[in-house]
Amino acid sequence: MSNTAIPFEFRVDVAQDDIDFMGHVNNASYLKWVQAAVVSHWQALAPVEAVAEHLWVALKHEITYRRPAFLEDDVVATVLLEKVQGARAFYETIIRRGTEVLAEVKSSWCCLDAETKRPARLAKDVIDHFFVKGAD
């Protein structure tokens, strides 16, 4: 059995305050977009109880910028959960304008228990919500 991640598309609103002195989106805005996209992915696919019981904090982002984004652009971030190990989750987020890749982001996140704020492992049945099962 192999698992394929369910892609999640997150529409990005490019705001005036995302634009830097060169007239395109500032690099820091991509981090804000990835944060919003990953959290929305979790909220959309995880069971309601799991969303209520867990929080996510970013541990690392590695961004490869391919093309600049501009104020009027229609931008979409596609989020894929690559794997979960213990309390850590590894994501890939591709930010696009149409078919053009603007940035590729690899990030790792730590799952926290919402009450204790301590690292928490997700149950397998929760993780399964993020993958389509297929036979090999």
Automatic annotation (TrEMBL):
GO molecular function terms attached to this record: fatty acyl-CoA hydrolase activity
EC number: 3.1.2.-
Keyword line: Hydrolase
CDD domains the record matches: 4HBT
Record family assignment: Belongs to the 4-hydroxybenzoyl-CoA thioesterase family.
Gene source species: Sphingomonas trueperi
Protein name: Acyl-CoA thioester hydrolase
A Pfam family hit: 4HBT_2
